[in-house]
Amino acid sequence: MPKLELYSVRDGSVQAQAGLNWGLADAHVNCEDAYIALTTSFFRNNPNFFPTQGSIINVIWDDGTQMQCLLEGTQKIGGIVYPKQLSSYNDKSIIGHYIRQRIGVSPNKQIDMQDLSNYGRNYIDVSHNNGIYYFDFS
To answer: Could you give the CA distance from residue 133 to residue 29 in angstroms, rounded to a whole number?
Structure first.
């Protein structure tokens, strides 16, 4: 089953002002704004898993929570354009608030690897069927 890492695989750490901590950037963002990066290795191993950049997908989490997510940004891999990140649709803080609640951290705390370790997971298992995406963060 494919996995979406919640940290920078390159650095081995949670980014300070991007990804789960995007809302802590010195920019026009809400403190709980967040996104999940979609890596080149994910797409090399799962090239047709997600639809194209700009698509909205329906996500059901392992606890039954449902949300719409947007595939944003662009990255070229082997000459093909793929989305670069996944955020909650219409309100970037929905996914950030949800993940923060799941791992038990406050809206203003910078999430780090220890927080993910305390929760017991630093990735999300993903699958899909009939246009519905299932995210397992249990």
So the answer is: 26
- 13: containing domain: 3-136
Q: How far apart are CA 81 and CA 113, in angstroms?
A: 30
The rounded Cα 124 to chain-centroid distance in angstroms is 8
| pLDDT of amino acid 27 | 81
Which tokens in the block code for residue 94? 């929905």
Q: Find the Cα–Cα–Cα–Cα dihedral 13, 17, 18, 22, rounded to 10°.
A: 130
Residues in a beta bridge with 5? 123
Q: What is the pTM of this model?
A: 0.95
Ranges under pLDDT 70 in the chain:
none
pLDDT digits (tens, 9 = 90+) for 36-48: 999 999 999 999 9
Provide the number of structural domains found in the chain: 1
Q: What is the CATH number of the domain that holds 7?
A: 2.40.330
Distances (CA, A) of 18 to 40, 45, 46, 78: 17, 24, 24, 25
